[in-house]
Amino acid sequence: MKYKLLGRSGLKVSELCLGTMGFGTENGWGSDKEISKQVFDTYVNAGGNFLDTANIYTRGTSERFLGEFIASDRERYVVATKYSLFENLVHPNASGNSRKNMMATVEASLKRLNTDYIDLLYLHIWDNLTPVDEVLRAMDDLVRQGKVQYLGISDTPAWVVSKANTLAELMGWSQFIGLQIEYSLIQRTVERELIPMAEHYHMTVLPWAPLAGGALSGKYLRGEKGRIKENSNRLNERSVKITKEVMAIADEIGADASSVALKWLMQQNVSCIPIVGATRPDQVQQNLKCVDVTLSVEHMQRLNDISAFELGFPAAFFEEDAVKKNVSGGFYGQTERRNFLK
Q1: Does 84 map to a domain?
Q2: Residue 92: CB partners within 8 Å, gap ≥ 6?
Q3: pLDDT at res. 340
């Protein structure tokens, strides 16, 4: 396993992040403590150090298991957790993005993880209620208190993240260095706004569901069962075409389909570290194979073509020949292209 710097920081994390949503069986699926430890050990023994959890995962069991697993060598690991989703259903301030819920959730997570600090704290989902400056100031307070070391944000509109990082830079507060979003060959609409924004702010993109719930592994086309329903967007006509192309390329290069789908993400221009979940050690081993795979320019283009989507306005508008001509006076192809916003 190789290591990458996380966003605009000196924090070194492994090129694959282990998602631990399946640590625990409270949601009717997942793995018990013994199997979860085997999953953890398989990942760590391959050089992995980047672990993703959240306060709500398996009703806190994921954090508790993880806390036990890292206890003997805490400094070795980079632990990411999240706040926003409910701690309980008793009162209205036990969920959301507010300072009150943030502080309470972080304290609860620290106890479950049995640690003094969280390496990376994400805002889990934007609530469309809390002012951005309230979130930023509270997070910066946690950093200054030593309870949190780095900040990330998940499942939030690009304009909110842009406003937040610009404000943080202006005020001297800690900025978001990681962006967690759904991103895969089947779900590429994030390339309209979120991916360019992440590139501009030098944020690392951390895709959840990088295999689209296992669809891109090809297992559903092979007749295996799983948690995806037949009428899911991950199994519609477009998704099946994409998966078949992934499987074809995998056969050509002698790799697993999951390795091809993961490596497509890892070879994007933006810094990208997929979050791979597993409920069995063999699933970890299969996902780890992607680090030894390299996709050619031709393979990348075939995958881009089969998974093409409508960019929408304004991105598609900028690509129109008339627009290029009008905005450049006819010198579009003769002028060096630079992004001075980076």
Answers
A1: yes
A2: none
A3: 54
Decide: helix, strand or coil at residue 16: coil
Check 43, 57, 77, 183 and give the catalytic one.
57
Domain coverage including residue 190: 3-309
Answer whether residue 340 is part of any domain.
Answer: no
pLDDT digits (tens, 9 = 90+) for 182-195: 999 999 999 999 99
Q: Does residue 333 form part of some domain? A: no
Question: How many C-beta atoms surround the C-beta of residue 170 within 10 A?
Answer: 8
**Is 57 a catalytic site residue?**
yes
Please check whether residue 77 is in contact with residue 83, taking contact to mean a CB–CB distance below 8 angstroms: no
Residue 227 has pLDDT above 90, yes or no: no
CATH of the domain at 51: 3.20.20.100
82 contacts 36 by C-beta, under 8 angstroms: no
Look at the chain and report how many structural domains it folds into: 1
Contact yes or no for 50/80 (Cβ under 8 A): yes
Q: Check: CB of residue 323 under 8 Å from CB of residue 329.
A: no
Instruction: Report the predicted TM-score, pTM, of the whole model to 2 decimal places.
Output: 0.95
Rounded to the nearest angstrom, the gap between the alpha carbon of residue 247 and the centroid of all alpha carbons in its chain is 23
Strand partners, 152: 122, 178
d(CA 207, CA 267): 13
> Which residue stretches of the chain are H helix?
33-45, 61-70, 99-113, 132-145, 158-171, 194-200, 237-253, 257-266, 281-288, 297-306, 315-318, 321-328
Q: Report if residue 251 sits inside a domain.
A: yes
CB 78 within 8 A of CB 120: yes
